[in-house]
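User: Show me a protein chain along with its predicted structure.
Assistant: Here is one chain, sequence first, then structure tokens.
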Amino acid sequence: MTQGELTLSRARGAKAQKRITAAPVATENTINFYPNARTQHRTVELRPKTLGQERLILDLLDDSQHIVVATGPAGTGKTYLAMLAAIRALKAGHCERLILTRPAVGVEDERHGFLPGDINQKMEPWTRPLFDVMREYYHQRDITRMLDDGIIEISPLAYMRGRTFKNAWIVADEMQNATPAQMKMLLSRIGEESKIVVTGDVEQADRRANQNGLLDLCERLKTQRVNGLSLIEMSRQDIQRHPIIESVLEMYSDI
């Protein structure tokens, strides 16, 4: 091999080495060119960071607790843990469907007809926090497919009357904005092999105190014990979203 051929061979080898080095590899220090690939098989782990979260997780995973009610201020992980437990149950085959609901206060008390799109699109502003959690574990196309197949269902409170949900997890978020009558209706929708998780903050209701369905439920549970129905009351000590939230809530304690 001549000196010129040797130089060319070395140059080509260096270029090939560059191509190999630039290829994405699975290490901590490289860019993930496929950021959504992990969501398909990601394991759902419920790890408590506070005693309040631990009590909530234990009840969420307890098959003898058919209805779990979690209250507390913003940032305590109520909605996040409820959705994690629901996703875990769906992935493990412990249920066939997820039913997601939130009171749509501010849209003429559940009157969705004038909003554009189908019911999923009409409810999108209220269910976005729930789907934010789902996107950590599913591709958007998979979520769309499950919505089309009825594996995930968005059901406004106004549309739940007369229905019975079997083999399902029902996650009802922001339920301080439900009326006592709506709360009664929701809790009576539970069917065989199902679980209802109710979350909300009794101090951040858009309704008057006498129309706060979550506050009414909590008061009833303090005087009446119901087997299979648990109440977890979280406090500011359970806030994990950001330390400043506790100070913000204190600053606005008069509202």
